[in-house]
């Protein structure tokens, strides 16, 4: 996709309805509203409003970007369904982007000044002490960012412990900050424990709620931030990444294993 | 008014379906992707899995429906989608897809009632005349619906507990029959040499309501009694007793209502309308009363998008469209969906 391409990006994996239309580096329109449970009502009117503000017809877009999760099951289905239907109908290239990567870079976008060489951990609450998360390393000096961990679900306590044992190594690498973005209030205890240990190594822990940003998602889709090559997907093939099986499958699998 | 093409989408439960319907009567395509094999190992529909499957297949089904219709997306006049009732997560997928199509093609969106769809499936094969009465029987519904005129619905009777299909599934599970149980009970009842007679729930004398939970309990009681006494159970006879009780109540109430309201036609629809015993009993009773009975083909009785296109056409004719902010409503009222409210 060329640098000046006009792209629509949407994500509904969190309580935030996040969307943006960008033409190259220029933000033409964006939306960032809290509307948990109501994403399905607002998604298409929000897209319509952004198109109008950009003075564009949907057919004039060069491509569509969707956050594919993980996150709220119902939520991720809304942006994915909207994006794949629009892409299929208008015959536009479609790009699926990790919602966790988008959440991480939504925070980075706001905290750029604070983050020199940092590990960024986006977290979305997944109930019962669990989070959907991933890890990225950003380095302002080299202007590079790379992914350290795939999107997955883990107990927050375990996730923090995993970073605690790596603190010396991170320090040696020049990492000065661990930034945690997303549902931080729900996991304050685990974060504060990591913070205390990290302080002994002179590594700061920055925890902030920063909502999902449509612009961050769009820029990820344009391939501006991550080294990962993100290729367009055939619309039919775009599916959410739920990061886990349904509860019914987990129970049924266990039952069938038991019964042999 | 002859070339209006509606692309209809139905995702209220475990079928992902899309259809192109011309002028509310003619099926140009009707693609139904059933998830039955996916839900079988769970013994029933798992809503979260149904929603996941809908997302995976929705655009493929839409593509197939348009391709098979012989038209292109640009020929379409409107997009119709099931607004409710149904599983909310499943409905949402169809809703968002429909809105995307309406926005991209810049054509109207029609929010459609699932049960209105089951009833108007009749129009895809038959001429409908009013007033009519519909007996809607499915896994989630058991209703007697009066249709005083086209597009107007008045519910005169409904189940107070289990839907007919639900009762069939529960009884089938108790008899350890595979899911879905309805067809197995129907088959067993036909093969039965004897019948274990079970009670009928008539409710109040003038009521058109139904109740099947007592009957289900009676079935379970028979199974338990046999088990406790160590007797062998004639399962076919029990299936027949259950089916006869259900049919007797449904047929009697439907015919009584048809007479009281002086209807031109009786329509049998919904997934359970595929039940042979029910079709035969109703056909016999209607013949005796000289009442025209309409039963859509089995493939139009189970959930499908063509029926949604047929019902949506009424709204299309009246210019009653939905906005892009329409909301799936799992408890959508049929009466309120009428094109006009009854005085």
TrEMBL record, chain A:
Q: Gcp-like domain: which residues? A: 34-142
Q: Which InterPro entries match?
A: ATPase_NBD (IPR043129), Gcp-like_dom (IPR000905), T6A_TsaB (IPR022496)
Q: Which domain of life is it from?
A: Bacteria
Pfam family, any one = TsaD
Give the UniProt entry's GO cellular component terms: cytosol
A Gene Ontology BP annotation from the UniProt entry: tRNA threonylcarbamoyladenosine modification
| Protein name, UniProt field | tRNA (Adenosine(37)-N6)-threonylcarbamoyltransferase complex dimerization subunit type 1 TsaB
Organism in which the protein naturally occurs: Paenibacillus montaniterrae
Automatic annotation (TrEMBL), chain B:
Q: Per its UniProt entry, which superkingdom is the organism in?
A: Bacteria
- Please verify whether the record's keywords include Hydrolase: yes
Q: Where in the cell is it found?
A: Cytoplasm
Report whether Acyltransferase shows up as a keyword of the record.
yes
InterPro entries reported in the protein's UniProt record: ATPase_NBD, Gcp-like_dom, KAE1/TsaD, Peptidase_M22_CS, TsaD
One GO cellular component, as annotated: cytoplasm
The molecular function GO annotations come to: DNA binding; endonuclease activity; iron ion binding; tRNA N(6)-L-threonylcarbamoyladenine synthase activity
Which reaction is recorded as catalysed by this protein? L-threonylcarbamoyladenylate + adenosine(37) in tRNA = N(6)-L-threonylcarbamoyladenosine(37) in tRNA + AMP + H(+)
Report any Pfam family annotated for this entry.
Answer: TsaD
**Manner of cofactor binding, per the entry note:** Binds 1 Fe(2+) ion per subunit.
Q: Which residues bind Fe cation?
A: 114, 118, 303
Residues forming coiled coils: none
Its EC top class is transferase
Q: Which residues bind substrate?
A: 136-140, 169, 182, 186, 275
Which keywords does the record carry? Answer: Acyltransferase, Cytoplasm, DNA-binding, Endonuclease, Hydrolase, Iron, Metal-binding, Nuclease, Transferase, tRNA processing
PROSITE patterns according to UniProt = GLYCOPROTEASE
Documented EC number(s):
2.3.1.234
Cofactor(s) it depends on: Fe(2+)
Family per record: Belongs to the KAE1 / TsaD family.
Which PANTHER family does the entry mention? TRNA N6-ADENOSINE THREONYLCARBAMOYLTRANSFERASE, TRNA N6-ADENOSINE THREONYLCARBAMOYLTRANSFERASE, MITOCHONDRIAL
Q: What is this protein called?
A: tRNA N6-adenosine threonylcarbamoyltransferase
The organism of origin for this protein? Paenibacillus montaniterrae
């Amino acid at each position: 996709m060329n640098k000046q391409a006009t792209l629509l990006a949407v994500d509904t994996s969190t309580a935030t309805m996040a969307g943006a239309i960008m033409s190259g580096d220029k933000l033409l329109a964006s939306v960032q509203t809290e509307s948990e449970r109501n994403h399905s009502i607002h998604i298409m009117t929000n897209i319509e409003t952004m198109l109008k503000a950009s003075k564009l017809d949907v057919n004039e877009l060069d491509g569509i970007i969707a956050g594919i999760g993980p996150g709220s099951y119902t939520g991720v289905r809304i942006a994915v369904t909207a994006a794949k239907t629009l892409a299929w109908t208008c015959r536009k290239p479609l790009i699926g982007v990790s919602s966790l990567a988008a959440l991480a870079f939504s925070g980075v976008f706001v905290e750029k000044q604070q983050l020199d060489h940092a590990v960024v951990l986006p977290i979305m609450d997944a109930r019962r002490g669990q989070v959907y998360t991933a890890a990225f390393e950003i380095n302002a000096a080299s202007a590079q960012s790379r992914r350290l961990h795939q999107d997955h679900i883990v107990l927050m306590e375990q996730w923090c412990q995993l970073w605690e044992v790596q603190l010396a190594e991170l320090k040696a690498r020049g990492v000065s900050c661990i930034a945690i973005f997303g549902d931080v209030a729900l996991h304050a205890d685990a974060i504060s424990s990591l913070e205390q240990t990290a302080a002994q190594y002179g590594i700061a822990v920055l925890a902030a709620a920063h909502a999902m940003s449509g612009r961050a998602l769009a820029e990820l889709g344009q391939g501006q931030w991550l080294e990962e090559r993100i290729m367009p997907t055939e619309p039919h093939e775009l599916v959410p990444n739920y990061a886990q099986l349904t509860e019914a499958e987990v129970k049924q699998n266990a039952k069938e294993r038991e019964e042999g | 008014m002859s070339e209006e093409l509606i692309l209809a989408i139905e995702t209220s439960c475990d079928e992902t379906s899309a259809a192109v319907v011309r002028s509310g009567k003619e099926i140009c395509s009707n693609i139904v992707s059933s998830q039955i094999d996916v839900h079988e190992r769970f013994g029933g529909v798992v809503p979260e899995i149904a929603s996941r499957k809908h997302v995976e297949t929705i655009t493929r089904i839409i593509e197939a429906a348009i391709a098979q219709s012989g038209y292109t997306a640009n020929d379409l006049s409107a997009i119709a989608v099931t607004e409710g009732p149904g599983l909310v997560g499943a409905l949402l997928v169809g809703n968002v897809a429909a809105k995307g199509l309406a926005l991209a093609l810049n054509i109207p969106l029609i929010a459609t009632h699932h049960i209105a769809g089951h009833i108007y499936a009749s129009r895809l094969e038959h001429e409908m005349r009013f007033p009519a009465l519909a007996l809607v029987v499915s896994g989630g519904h058991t209703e007697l619906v009066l249709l005083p005129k086209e597009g107007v619905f008045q519910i005169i009777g409904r189940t107070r507990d289990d839907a007919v299909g639900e009762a069939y599934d529960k009884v089938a599970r108790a008899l350890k029959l595979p899911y879905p149980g309805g067809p197995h009970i129907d088959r067993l009842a036909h093969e039965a040499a004897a019948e274990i007679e079970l009670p009928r729930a008539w409710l109040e004398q003038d009521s058109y309501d139904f109740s099947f939970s007592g009957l289900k309990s009676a079935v379970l009681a028979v199974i338990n009694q046999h088990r406790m006494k160590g007797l062998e159970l004639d399962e076919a006879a029990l299936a027949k007793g259950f089916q006869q009780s259900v049919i007797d109540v449904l047929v009697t109430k439907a015919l009584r209502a048809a007479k009281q309201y002086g209807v031109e036609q009786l329509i049998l629809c919904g997934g359970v309308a595929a039940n042979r015993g029910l079709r035969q009993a109703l056909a016999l009773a209607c013949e005796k009363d000289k009442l025209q009975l309409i039963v859509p083909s089995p493939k139009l009785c189970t959930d499908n998008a063509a029926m949604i296109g047929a019902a949506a056409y009424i709204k299309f004719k009246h210019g009653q469209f939905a906005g892009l902010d329409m909301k799936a409503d799992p408890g959508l009222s049929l009466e309120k969906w009428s094109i006009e409210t009854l005085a």
